[in-house]
């Protein structure tokens, strides 16, 4: 298959392509998650800092001691120790208390006391902002201080971005560890999935898989043989066009159904449930099928069975006609052999001078052989049936079984016009064979064959003086039924199939032996 590969197509198998794609997807998802987590942590840290600086600034602004000190002659002496103490107890990097004009009374760096505050101030309302001051970028809050409804100063406190970044770095370490763990876990799971896909696709590339499916589909629809795939639970997982035609099923409705639920002969349903079958013949309403079943396993797992069906209907019909011709040839051979024996007898009688006895013997034997031939040819005008009767009579005669025609045997050729010679050969030949088999072990074995035209068609009757058939005839024409041991029983099943196909009926009876009576319509139903 490698020579069909596109030289410009990727050389990677489907499993490898999916593995790389999944790794990229996992990496993108993990990195995107980490970025979102970082953004969220930064936002929450900033919000927490803003809330904290507002709380500290408001707490100081609301203290009466701070307002009194701002109204006093030396605010720095009172407020600097207080501001530094509160700054040490909180996360604040600076606490600045100033005049309404922004002149500092307190600062972490005493050298900056008395200088103007760097940042935005609004004596009428609270401000919260991120601003770059003397200590660098910081999140700060500025709150006005009132005494007796008069603005006496401002309180500003803030947390530098440097401190916030340090806290974020600690969170980032945990975040990176979590992201790395997620990436490793995702990679491991992706590798396991890739190994499973590689095992199921046999390392093939997408183009090869697609091409294989196209070949597979084309072959399934092209072959005339039937193909069924049956799962271990007995459900049909695949039914090609050939199987649908041979079994008279709809392939679109069959798949997914259990074999036992299909409209098939019971013997075939039973066979499809087995694990292994080789060249077993089965009959449907209008076909003779050769069935083979093989189990399917992969990596020690049971995948079910593969069922192949081949149509042997035409072959079976031709085989019946060939048997008829072979029987006719056997009849001629037998007659030639008997004629040679009779001729030797006649010659010997003449040499002994017993001429009259020789003439009488020759004419008697000739009359006996000719009488049977004349009776068959006169009663049955259809040459194939006549040849079949003569051949079966000769074969039975060599086995010591007498085959005779019924006295009322007479078939009008017009009555056979609508009946196929193949089906007639199948019916008559198998009934005679079955009767001959039945009488081989009885004294004075005899089989009587009757063919007669009736008002509504043709009657075929085969009677023997054998042991008869057991009570109940429901199973007689099912594949496999036989009074003999071994792999027998197909003949009567073929008889039943041909009779049903011609729209006729078959009955079984008899007291001293078996009598099979087939009634066929003059016009095919």
From TrEMBL:
Keyword Kinase tagged: yes
Gene3D superfamilies: Histidine kinase-like ATPase, C-terminal domain, PAS domain
Organism of this sequence: Saccharopolyspora flava
A cellular-component GO term for this protein: plasma membrane
Pfam short name (any one): PAS_4
Residues in Histidine kinase domain copies: 306-524
SMART domains on file: HATPase_c (SM00387)
Enzyme class: transferase
Localization in the cell: Cell membrane
Catalysed transformations (reactions): ATP + protein L-histidine = ADP + protein N-phospho-L-histidine
Predominant cellular place of this UniProt entry's protein: membrane
Record InterPro entries: HATPase_C_sf, HATPase_dom, His_kinase_dom, PAS-like_dom_sf, PAS_4, sCache_3, Sensor-like_sf, Sig_transdc_His_kin-like_C
EC identifiers of the protein: 2.7.13.3
SUPFAM superfamilies: ATPase domain of HSP90 chaperone/DNA topoisomerase II/histidine kinase (SSF55874), PYP-like sensor domain (PAS domain) (SSF55785), Sensory domain-like (SSF103190)
Membrane topology designation: Multi-pass membrane protein
Lyase among keywords: no
GO molecular function: ATP binding; phosphorelay sensor kinase activity
TM spans (from-to): 20-39, 172-193
Keywords of the record: ATP-binding, Cell membrane, Kinase, Membrane, Nucleotide-binding, Phosphoprotein, Transferase, Transmembrane, Transmembrane helix, Two-component regulatory system
Protein name, as recorded: histidine kinase
């Amino acid at each position: 298959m490698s020579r069909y590969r596109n030289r410009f197509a990727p050389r990677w198998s489907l499993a490898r392509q999916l593995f790389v794609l999944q790794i990229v997807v996992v990496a993108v998802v993990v990195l995107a998650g980490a970025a979102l987590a970082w953004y969220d942590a930064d936002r929450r840290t900033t919000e927490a800092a803003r809330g904290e600086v507002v709380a500290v600034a408001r707490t100081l602004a609301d203290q009466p001691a701070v307002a009194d000190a701002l109204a006093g002659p030396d605010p720095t002496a009172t407020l600097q120790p207080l501001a530094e103490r509160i700054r040490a107890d909180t996360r604040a990097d600076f606490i600045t208390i100033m005049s309404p004009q922004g002149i500092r009374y307190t600062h972490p760096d005493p050298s900056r006391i008395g200088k103007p505050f760097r940042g935005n101030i609004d004596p009428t309302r609270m401000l919260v902002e991120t601003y770059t001051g003397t200590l660098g970028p910081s999140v700060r809050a500025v709150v006005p201080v009132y005494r007796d409804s008069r603005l006496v100063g401002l309180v500003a406190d803030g947390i530098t971005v440097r401190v916030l970044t340090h806290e974020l770095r600690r969170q980032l370490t945990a975040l990176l560890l979590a992201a790395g763990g997620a990436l490793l876990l995702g990679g491991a799971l992706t590798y396991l999935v890739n190994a499973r896909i590689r095992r199921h696709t046999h390392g093939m590339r997408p183009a090869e898989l697609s091409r294989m499916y196209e070949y597979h589909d084309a072959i399934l629809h092209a072959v005339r043989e039937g193909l069924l795939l049956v799962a271990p639970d007995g459900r049909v997982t695949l039914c090609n066009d050939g199987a649908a035609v041979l079994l008279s099923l709809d392939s679109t409705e069959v798949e997914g159904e259990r074999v036992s639920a299909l409209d098939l002969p019971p013997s075939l349903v039973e066979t499809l449930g087995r694990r292994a079958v080789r060249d077993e013949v089965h009959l449907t309403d209008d076909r003779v099928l050769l069935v083979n079943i093989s189990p399917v396993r992969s990596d020690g797992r049971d995948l079910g069975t593969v069922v192949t069906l081949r149509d042997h209907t035409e072959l079976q019909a031709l085989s019946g006609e060939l048997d008829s011709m072979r029987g006719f040839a056997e009849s001629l051979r037998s007659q030639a052999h008997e004629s040679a024996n009779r001729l030797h007898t006649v010659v010997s009688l003449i040499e002994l001078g017993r001429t009259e006895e020789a003439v009488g013997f020759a004419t008697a034997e000739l009359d006996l052989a000719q009488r049977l031939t004349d009776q068959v040819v006169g009663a049955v005008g259809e040459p194939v049936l006549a040849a079949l009767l003569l051949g079966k009579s000769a074969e039975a005669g060599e086995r010591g079984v007498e085959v005779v025609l019924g006295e009322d045997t007479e078939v009008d050729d017009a009555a056979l016009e609508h009946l196929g010679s193949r089906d007639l050969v199948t019916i008559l030949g198998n009934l005679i064979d079955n009767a001959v088999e039945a009488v081989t072990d009885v004294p004075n074995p005899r089989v009587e064959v009757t063919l007669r035209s009736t008002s509504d068609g043709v009657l075929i009757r085969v009677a023997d003086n054998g042991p008869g058939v057991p009570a109940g005839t429901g199973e007689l024409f099912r594949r496999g039924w036989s009074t003999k041991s071994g792999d027998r029983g197909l003949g009567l099943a073929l008889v039943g199939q041909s009779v049903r196909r011609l729209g006729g009926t078959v009955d079984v009876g008899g007291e001293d032996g078996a009598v099979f009576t087939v009634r066929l319509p003059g016009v095919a139903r």
